[in-house]
Amino acid sequence: MRRDNTDLIVTAAVTAAAATVLLLTGIIAAAGPAVTVPRVLAGLPLVLVLPGYALSTLLLPTGSAVPGPVNRLLWRCVWVTGLSLAVTVLGGLALNLTPARLTRASWTISLTVLTMLALAASAGLRAWRSRAGTAREVRAREPARSRGIARYKLAYPVAVLAVTGTAIGLAQVSGGWQRTQGFAQLWLVPARHGTAVGQAMLGVRSDYQQAESFHLVLRRGARTVSAWDFTLASGQTWQQAVTAGVGQPLAAELTVAGLHTAGHTVHITSS
Q1: What pLDDT is recorded for position 118?
Q2: pLDDT value of residue 270
Q3: Is 184-269 assigned to CATH 2.60.40.10?
Q4: What spatial distance separates the first Cα and last Cα of the chain, rounded to whole Å?
Q5: How far apart are CA 166 and CA 143, in angstroms?
Q6: CA dihedral 96, 102, 105, 107 (to 10 degrees)
Q7: Domain positions in the chain
């Protein structure tokens, strides 16, 4: 029995190692090959191999029918890759509906948990079949081989329709849940009127769906010239004439409340 479950044990160990690497590299803020290479090496099998193999041991147990002259290893590889991609895509769509959203951590944890659950279920199924197996069942397996092939062929279009329908449904629901953030327009342009030489027009228009508070800073080089705090409802505009010295660059930075960095920055140089 231990010998039969070796592949499940190895798969569980590799899954745990891949998840650990992804979670640890996600904590490390530094970039470069020291982080990117192990992240890619751990992420590829977790996306393309491990979930599909775990599910294939559950859906395609040892001795299951293989259609026609197809090589058994190739048959298993096709199922492994296809199931892995299906699980990754559907899992990502499902995570987007949860408060955790789709992040590296949530994606890693979900794939790991699903893989481990499939391996545990497969181990339990193997143990049950080992206890329930009899000589009569073994002899009856061969005549049922052709019927098993027919069932697998019929299962293909059904599985495709089920996966496609589920993916489309989750995508539509996910799109409905996605909050449209909107945006703000920021401009700092030289005044066009001949009487306003040395002047520039600074303006903001809010296209957010709800009222937002803004913090606007005007700088000349590294020196802050002016700063404004104001609130705009959707579609409202704020404008201010500012002095723009000839040959002196101006920079405007606009920050939306709740953001820690400037969301919009423009620069001009008056001539």
Answers
A1: 92
A2: 47
A3: yes
A4: 84
A5: 35
A6: 70
A7: 6-177, 184-269
